[in-house]
Amino acid sequence: MRISELADAAGVTKRTIDYYTQLGLLEVKKSENNYRHYPKDCIERLITIERLKKQGFSLQDIKHQFENPVPKAAECQTHEEIDIYELRAKIHLLNKEVQQFISNNELADEKDLKKMNKLLRNDSVALMQTILLLLS
């Protein structure tokens, strides 16, 4: 599909698509007459990029996620396929945030838990949920 068709389908501007293409977030093929053609899966990719941006991820973080997708549990052949060091670093950061919050506030009821969720970064909450899913 041409850039204008892609922009309309994904709800972004042609300039945005150009920028994402320059950053390497989107792949483009040029035809013999020098038109840029994007595969249809770029629509979903653009929607994903915009969603992740709204969640606070930088474009570099998004590019890293696309280049290094986390394998689903069923796809993992060995534990070595998961970046253990990155996971440990995130867990360590999360633990520091939780310990800091607990030392500053005593958790007495559900209202305090909601307050803690607001203070923690979105990716920390997502990481906690992922860890809980993996452990259950």
What does this structure look like?
With 136 residues, the chain is an all-alpha fold. It contains seven helices and two strands; from the N terminus they run ααββααααα. The chain has helices at 3-10, 14-23, 41-54, 59-67, 84-104, 110-119, 122-135; strands at 29-30, 36-37. Strands 1-2 form a two-stranded antiparallel sheet. β1 and β2 (36-37) form a beta hairpin. α1 (3-10) packs across α3 (41-54). The longest helix is centred in the last third of the chain and has 21 residues, at 84-104. The radius of gyration is 20 Å and the shape is elongated. The termini are far apart.
Key attributes of the depicted protein:
two-stranded antiparallel ribbon, mainly alpha, 136 residues, 7 helices, elongated
How would you sum up this structure in a few lines?
The protein is mainly α and 136 residues long.
Query: What percentage of residues falls in helices of 4 or more residues?
Result: 55-70%
Which stretches are poorly predicted, pLDDT < 50 over at least 5 residues?
none
Q: How much of the residues is beta strand, in percent?
A: under 5%
What is the arithmetic mean of pLDDT? Answer: 76
Radius of gyration: 20 Å
Approximate shape: elongated
Query: In order across it, which strands form the biggest sheet?
Result: 1-2
N- to C-terminal distance:
43 Å
Total beta-strand segments: 2
Please tally the helical runs, counting DSSP H or I stretches of 4 or more residues. Answer: 7
Helix/strand order, N-terminal first: HHEEHHHHH
Biggest pleated-sheet summary: 2 strands, antiparallel
The helix-and-strand class reads mainly alpha
